[in-house]
Amino acid sequence: MRIAIISDIHSNADALINVLEDIKRFKVDKTISLGDNIGYGPEPNKTISLLIENKIPSVMGNHELGVLNKKLIKQFNPIAQFALNKTIETISLNSLEYVRQSNNYISKYGSHFVHGMPPDSPTSYMSKTSGKETIDLFNKIFCNICFIGHTHDLKMAVLRSDSIEYKILKNDLYSLSKDKKYLINAGSVGQPRDGNKTSKYLIFDNVSYRILVRYIHYDREKVINKMLELGYPIEHTIRLK
Q1: Which pLDDT does position 61 carry in this prediction?
Q2: Dist. CA 10–CA 122, nearest whole Å
Q3: Per the CATH hierarchy, to which homologous superfamily does domain 2-240 belong?
Q4: How far is the C-alpha of 37 from the C-alpha of 235, rounded, in Å?
Q5: Which of 9, 42, 103, 241 could form a disulfide with 226 if both were Cys (CB 3.0 to 4.6 A apart)?
Q6: Alpha-carbon gap, residue 186 to 94, rounded angstroms
Q7: Which residue ranges make up each domain of the chain?
């Protein structure tokens, strides 16, 4: 079975459209989103409509939590706060229903899917979790592979009983071992932060046990112009340039 894993779209519908077109080329069996489908970008409703149309389930991201519970917004940085408030102003009831139906994790197809860190955190960061804490958290799930998002940074952690080896993922095919444990960050569709501005997503074949990393180009200037037209400060567009 081949599973496409997308994450951190952040209301960037243009990026998502190109990613979905690429996914169709590979005839995957299922696509799963790791959350933060909204926030930052200009088109939350179009983004969620695309997920609904393509029957893509999603786990809960921290930006979804911020939209559902306005009291949490003060925990975000100023850029995220502004974008979340813009999202709250424009999000439709249909989009909100999709968000509300998201669970904190999905455990299927021999894999675990969560936005932040296993077993079920939408808010914890891989980059801020110690090696021992990561091993302890991973041991709370019943899969050897867990996919996460949140940091927008493609990375793989190979977990052993007492140590972790971290690897940066590039535009390549990776063979995994079924007797090892993996924590894999899928990067970001809508706002990568690894120095390469193309959209990123993964395809996981749970039979051959291989991960394909895909880099997808889209018209970033078009998205930037949409943001500026909606009144986003120019500082909010820097991460796309």
Answers
A1: 98
A2: 15
A3: Metallo-dependent phosphatases (3.60.21.10)
A4: 21
A5: 42
A6: 27
A7: 2-240
Q: How high does pLDDT run on average in the chain?
A: 95
Query: If we measure between CA atoms, which residue out of 152, 189, 185, 234 comes closest to residue 12?
Result: 189
pTM listed for this prediction? 0.96
**12: Cα within 13 Å, side-chain hemisphere:** 35
> For 170-196, what is each residue's pLDDT tens digit?
999 999 999 999 999 999 999 999 989
Query: Longest Cα pair distance anywhere in the chain, in angstroms?
Result: 52
Quick check: bond before 42 cis, omega within 30?
A: no
Q: Which residue numbers in the chain have pLDDT < 50?
A: none
Contact present, 186 and 200 (Cβ < 8 Å): yes
Q: What single letter denotes the amino acid at residue 48?
A: I
Is the separation of the CB atoms in 40 and 10 below 8 Å? Answer: yes
